[in-house]
Amino acid sequence: MKTLFPILLLLSSVIVVAVITPQLRAQAQQEPLGVMTYNIRYDNPDDAPNTWDNRKERVTNLMQLYEPAFLGTQEVLFHQLEDIDRALTDYRWIGKGRKDGKKGGEFSALFYDSRKVELVAGSDSTIWLSKTPGQPSKDWDAALPRVLTWGEFEVKSSGDRIFVFNTHFDHVGETARTESARIILDTIKKTAGDRPVVLMGDFNIVDDSKPYQVLTSSFMTDAIHTSDLPHVGPAFTGGGFEVQIPSRGRRIDYVFTNNAVEVLKHATITSFRNGYYPSDHLPVFAEIKVK
């Protein structure tokens, strides 16, 4: 009997491990991921007292507070990109300057938390929202070149794959915004198919516009409407630095997902100090999980 006892104990341990391991895997797959889109406002000296030097710490502190797995930024000049990169020590980023495909002009840089996710494809994947997406360019009635930055990522805790896209639409051209929406949907179809997708950015559109209708007419949905927890925060995201009540802002910054992603929470963040927001846009934060 004494010789059988260790064998029985070993067998029971194996059975327990066999039962627990799938449970642990299931729990790992349920781990939520934060996503944030944030137009940080380009470094404009005319914004005094809200110059970049006066507010960059507040911007990066807010990012560090929420610790999103994915952080889509807009209007980022290269020296601002360097400032954010220095502050977010556990993050990496991908993207190109929209002016020359290098360091020139604004970036729609996509930051990701290297502790949580790993980039597996898309390190060089910035395209222009134009008729010639492979080179710096603008078309239709766009005032400026606009870009889309994307990557495919693996979630370290579960092994799940997810595609994340970040963009900034033109602020003038209605046709350019509509065509940009079509380009992005086509890019998502070609690169991600029906796999999990998050699309975020400053779209410079409201939710009754044609570009919004294009974006939400097929396989992408506005996360504010699908969140398990009803939206928290105001209905506007862009309205200037100054805190105003009532606000004259509009909701122009969005997180969209496809049906392979569950949205758990959705919020517009209204952090401010001395009557001013850290940027002229409010960040939008969502908590998601891969289905």
TrEMBL record:
Pfam families: Exo_endo_phos. GO terms for molecular function: 3'-5'-RNA exonuclease activity; endonuclease activity. It comes from Fodinibius roseus. Keywords: Endonuclease, Exonuclease, Hydrolase, Nuclease. CDD domains: EEP-1. Residues 36-281 form the Endonuclease/exonuclease/phosphatase domain. This is Metal-dependent hydrolase, endonuclease/exonuclease/phosphatase family. InterPro entries: CCR4/nocturin_mRNA_transcr, Endo/exonu/phosph_ase_sf, Endo/exonuclease/phosphatase. It comes from the Bacteria.
